Amino acid sequence: MSKNLTSRAEDYSKWYNELVVKADLAENSAVRGCMVIKPYGYAIWEKMQAELDRMFKETGHQNAYFPLFVPKSLFEAEEKNAEGFAKECAVVTHYRLQNDPDNPGKLRVDPEAKLEEELVVRPTSEAIIWNTYKGWIQSYRDLPILINQWANVVRWEMRTRLFLRTAEFLWQEGHTAHATKAEALVEAEQMNDVYAAFAQNFMAIPVVKGVKTESERFAGAVETYCIEALMQDGKALQAGTSHFLGQNFAKAFDVKFTNNEGKLDHVWATSWGVSTRLVGALIMTHSDDKGLVLPPNLAPFQVVIVPIFKTDEQFEAISEKAESIIKELKALGVSCKYDKRTTHRPGAKFAQHELQGVPLRIAIGPKDLENNTVELARRDTLTKESVQIDDIASTIKELLEVIQDELFSKAKNFRDEHTTEVNDFETFKKILETKTGFISAHWDGTAETEQKIKELTKATIRCIPMSNKMEKGTCVYSGKPSTQRVLFAKAY
Amino acid sequence: MSKNLTSRAEDYSKWYNELVVKADLAENSAVRGCMVIKPYGYAIWEKMQAELDRMFKETGHQNAYFPLFVPKSLFEAEEKNAEGFAKECAVVTHYRLQNDPDNPGKLRVDPEAKLEEELVVRPTSEAIIWNTYKGWIQSYRDLPILINQWANVVRWEMRTRLFLRTAEFLWQEGHTAHATKAEALVEAEQMNDVYAAFAQNFMAIPVVKGVKTESERFAGAVETYCIEALMQDGKALQAGTSHFLGQNFAKAFDVKFTNNEGKLDHVWATSWGVSTRLVGALIMTHSDDKGLVLPPNLAPFQVVIVPIFKTDEQFEAISEKAESIIKELKALGVSCKYDKRTTHRPGAKFAQHELQGVPLRIAIGPKDLENNTVELARRDTLTKESVQIDDIASTIKELLEVIQDELFSKAKNFRDEHTTEVNDFETFKKILETKTGFISAHWDGTAETEQKIKELTKATIRCIPMSNKMEKGTCVYSGKPSTQRVLFAKAY
């Protein structure tokens, strides 16, 4: 199967699209722009969910659930937010179908079942949630509210790609309410840190933490924190965002509270989210021309055992060994699948597990039984060796940690090699045409320059890094004075 | 707070509605018929999800995700299914809003952004899923497909009640594909058994397993298995259903496979689901006039510790004890919350935890420190006693198991006391007017009689119990011959 995969060098975009489908992660559906997430792809998302959910709860958040629909009058209440999402939202106008008198056997919208007020399928939930919070908040004693929601959202994007940009996607959205601006700012930054820690420790993806420029901010936010990653084709991908919303939504929905001095004030807000887009980032960061490469911390199963046998007796003896290895691995918290299918030959199984990125493969044949060994193959390096079966479980556990670390290092080296400090616009353009990657350059701070650079090069300001040092310089485009470098790149 | 709760005897329906809101489980939203599930209510649902998900995976199922929207042409493909849901479905007709020229600052549907084909918000996913399975199945080697989905669905019900019947609800829906009728039947029955085991062992709700009559079947099913529970007001509640769909969807979507004899055949199907309705069933089965009573196996936290103190020194000494108890409980897998809020007095905390149904409450005061005791209060029996602090953790663990068992027994006794064998229609009517509950009676097997009884008494046939013995008798209404009793009740 993997032989048929287009190589990254040949056509990176085609490689990605083919890989998602061939590795059984997802496919396009009958609904324009919506995907079907297949069990193997969904298992990766479940692993991500479990870890993120744990991190949210550790930082004091609780889950809740708010309606899928936003009545139009609420949707339009926060003007900038509405403006940002109105152009791409699915709208429910009717609540019934009836038999179509002109087409027997077919249905049509019942004209008499028109809703008094249209319902927008949530593209994000600030509006419906802040309208709810209004009833929950009277005093500073009701604050903070620290809530997260796991949900589906719909944004009617015109150009879609599996995981990266789909009309419907799955995500989590945190929505918090605070008594002070300072507390809300700390929350927004904290959640961006949580995302960065998750990306680095679980996805093995190095990220730059930063804030967005005004033109790249979330519609309705005062400040947008983000984590930015670099894909293997040198394009950046925004992997998560956390917004300080100021009092914008509290004002739009009239949410006031009595503070501890007895005065009325509007509530301060944050929201933050990551989505199934992360699965796309995971694929594009680590995978190769043979297929997926999954970091052990997010692989649906970390080890697969393939028996190699001719006789039933051999199969039984191998199975006994396999089951005992699985038991030992389980005790160490390592997940392992025993691929004993009789419908596939070992070679086909090897190809499938390679394509699907299982971190470690164990093959056991009759000779291994004699020698008390197994063949252990690493997916990331495509190397294999014969290892003694004693202590195999702890060997594997350590090796999985090594793989996790090495995937991160490899991605970080790539990112660092593809991050260039640039001081003149000619070099800026040349890099985007050849090496691509992140460009660290001075910018005069105006939206006009940002826009002009985008028009000329397709590169946008991905973020103003949090780690930035103040440094005097001149804008790479306008030559005007600047105090710090920002990160440019072409982006997904 | 609990003093204000309407009693069950006074008005059961009002008691339920008040309790859901006062116990902070859920509330109505700005969207007609849709609820907001608040953190405490959602935590119960999360506990249910975790356990069900474990049971589904143990029985070989994997999770996946399919689109929220069903194109109208797919929706109408399986005729009976379409007919069953067409009257109550939300329909997306447009994909954009624009500024309303007649109302500055307002938005309206953009008439130029009309969809070529309307999209139905899924009321259930058979159509979109079987249209997808068509691409996955060619041979018997591709079978079975054992998939579950956790999702939101929308049914535009006219009369809604929090958890019990809402326009949007959360659920899981299993959709499986099989090579043989026998295998599909086994699957459908197995999943009904899984639901029954979950209801009994985790929700502490006794259920009757049975099959539905033709008129009560899921639209598009050949056979519907169900579990039926009895609420405290004597009304039945359908807690879960599992459908044998025959080849109906395979035929509607042309899903054929080559069987192991090389012949083409249509695939056999099942689907099965439970929803947030279960939270409603949980509340109505166990709770009392003081508030919620939660079975320990599904309580968001099983124990709460309330410190009773006047001085900071007392608080510190009590907190030390509390933290050590929490640690011991955690080691035994018991969840415990330390309610050290300074904004509430102990009495208010007691009332809140009673209202919210925390199974066990520990109070620790200065005297307890002296005597090495704590006050331990059971929510279900409203009893309390002073117990020695030594071995408190294992005492509590055992007590939680006792509570779980006793709640089940109590509910089972109630159910058994409210199940009456009836042989004549006068008694039938009288019971429904006074004692209510399940009525076990002979039925002649016709839809006409079933309908007539419903018109006259509002009672429906809840199920034909799986445990039924064949027994000769005469129909309670028509007097015609019958071979077995069925279960009637008024139902939610």
From TrEMBL, chains A, B:
Gene Ontology cellular component annotations, sorted alphabetically: aminoacyl-tRNA synthetase multienzyme complex; cytoplasm
Domain of life: Bacteria
Catalytic activity: tRNA(Pro) + L-proline + ATP = L-prolyl-tRNA(Pro) + AMP + diphosphate
Gene3D superfamilies reported for this sequence: Anticodon-binding domain (3.40.50.800), Bira Bifunctional Protein, Domain 2 (3.30.930.10), C-terminal domain of ProRS (3.30.110.30)
Chaperone listed as a keyword: no
A single MF term (Gene Ontology): proline-tRNA ligase activity
Keywords: Aminoacyl-tRNA synthetase, ATP-binding, Cytoplasm, Ligase, Nucleotide-binding, Protein biosynthesis
EC numbers: 6.1.1.15
Acyltransferase keyword on record: no
Compartment(s) where it occurs, according to its Swiss-Prot or TrEMBL record: Cytoplasm
Residue span, Aminoacyl-transfer RNA synthetases class-II family profile domain: 27-295
Gene Ontology terms describing biological process: prolyl-tRNA aminoacylation
Family statement: Belongs to the class-II aminoacyl-tRNA synthetase family. ProS type 3 subfamily.
Subunit structure: Homodimer.
Functional note: Catalyzes the attachment of proline to tRNA(Pro) in a two-step reaction: proline is first activated by ATP to form Pro-AMP and then transferred to the acceptor end of tRNA(Pro).
Domain remark from Swiss-Prot or TrEMBL: Consists of three domains: the N-terminal catalytic domain, the anticodon-binding domain and the C-terminal extension.
Name this polypeptide is given: Proline--tRNA ligase
Organism: Winogradskyella pacifica
Lineage: Bacteria, Pseudomonadati, Bacteroidota, Flavobacteriia, Flavobacteriales
